[in-house]
Design brief:
Porin, 18 strands, 16-stranded antiparallel β-barrel
Length: 405
């Protein structure tokens, strides 16, 4: 009986021991889960701080690197250049950026050889000629808001004469500001920019054909002023050539143009002093007008007219004119047809005049943006001289490179 009681007590003790152990493990598990939840909550609170820590740390590294660079720049400006110094161009760029400067440099060239069968002065021949090939460079620097300086040089290349690098076309320096642009040097006058440029679309050295014989393309010793307001542009130029003629201005040329969307309208006035040696013959006065418009179909039409009055001593006055009409129409992306009519009268008597009229027709193929190939027929009907006819083919290859720094 005693033995049974002892066994019963041992069994009960064992049961209670197991039960107590299970209860303790469950309590420990609950406690650990509770602690884990608290740690997760604390980590969630720390996450924004960690992100902020990383951001601050990265910013410190950037500022430290910039400080090192500034130290190098300061030392390089007061000490001779070393292998570890910044390159000179990079230093200039950093300095320009610090002062808000913007610079642009451009080099360009266009080569325009032609091969033609030419009937001139009752004689026919094949000849390689040039359609005003040239090359140049242009540089601008902005030194304040809407203020910049311009340097421009351009020279002809005569492919019909050994490819010689020819005479200057444009060489000038200009200052551009909100109050207009002032330039000094050899430049385009208002007469070309407003009248001739819009009809000068052909691949020929004598285009525009009526404008060409006696009109202005480039003028040396020129002072120019140009300003644009809205759709209007005014240009006034004056030539000061102290080597010949008047000690003051030898030429005055001014005009105004209206340009909006596809429309151009302009009027000009020119007064040129004419000399024979040091003897003043008198003045030539020219009134000019132009019109150009591009239609929605792609058709381009341009007209240029000049009324010329030649004042001379001893009542030897004369009256002349030039008229050019140019048209162009594209066929697709790569082809274009151009046509022109022109009429020139120099006002001379029959034994001296070069009076003529004529027409030309051109077909162009444009396989690339900067490459043009053409076939052109040109006819000039002179009033008192032998007519001129030519059939030519030619190329035009344009090249340009621009750097901004």
């Amino acid at each position: 009986m005693r033995v049974k009681l002892i066994c019963l007590l041992l069994t009960a003790a064992n049961v209670f021991s197991v039960y107590g152990q299970e209860v303790g493990e469950e309590q420990e598990l609950n406690n650990l889960k509770s602690e884990l939840s608290q740690i997760k909550a604390q980590l969630a609170l720390l996450e924004p701080l960690m992100l902020q820590f990383e951001a601050i740390n990265q910013r410190i590294k950037v500022l430290e690197q910039q400080q090192k660079n500034h130290t190098k720049m300061a030392s390089s400006s007061t000490s001779p250049p070393r292998e570890t110094s910044l390159p000179k161009l990079e230093e200039q760029q950093l300095s320009q950026q610090a002062h808000g400067l913007e610079r642009e440099a451009k080099i360009y060239a266009t080569l325009r050889p032609t091969l033609g069968y030419i009937d001139e002065n009752n004689e026919s021949q094949w000849d390689v000629r040039d359609a005003l090939s040239h090359a140049g460079f242009k540089s601008t620097v902005e030194f304040n808001d809407n203020w910049q300086g311009t340097l421009h040089g351009e020279w002809g290349i005569d492919l019909s004469n050994n490819g010689d690098f020819g005479k200057a076309r444009q060489v000038y320096v200009a200052l551009d500001s909100p109050y207009g642009t002032v330039g000094i040097g050899k430049q385009r006058p208002a007469q070309y920019l407003f009248i001739a440029e819009y009809v000068d679309i052909f691949n020929h050295g004598n285009s525009p054909f009526a404008y060409d014989p006696e009109s202005l393309f480039f003028v040396d010793n020129l002072l120019s002023y140009q300003i644009s307001k809205g759709h209007f542009t005014w240009i006034l130029v004056s030539q000061f050539d102290g080597a010949q003629g008047d000690n003051n201005s030898d030429l005055i040329n001014g005009g105004v143009s209206y340009d909006k969307d596809n429309l151009h309208i302009a009027m000009t006035y020119t007064k040129v002093s004419e000399y024979e040696g040091e003897r003043e013959l008198d003045d030539n006065e020219i009134l000019g007008g132009s019109f150009a418009y591009t239609f929605n179909s792609g058709l381009y039409l341009a007209l240029g007219y000049q009324d010329k009055k030649y004042s001379r001593d001893l009542s030897h006055d004369k009256q002349g004119h030039t008229f050019d009409m140019s048209m162009a129409y594209p066929f697709g992306k790569y082809y274009k047809v151009k046509a022109g009519y022109f009429d020139f009268d120099d006002g001379h008597s029959a034994d001296k005049t070069q009076k003529f009229h004529g027409a030309n027709l051109t077909f162009e193929w444009l396989p690339a943006e900067n490459l043009r190939l053409h076939v052109e027929f040109l006819h000039r009907d002179f009033e008192y001289l032998a007519d001129f006819n030519s059939l030519s083919i030619g190329f035009r290859y344009d090249y340009a490179e621009v750097w901004r720094y």
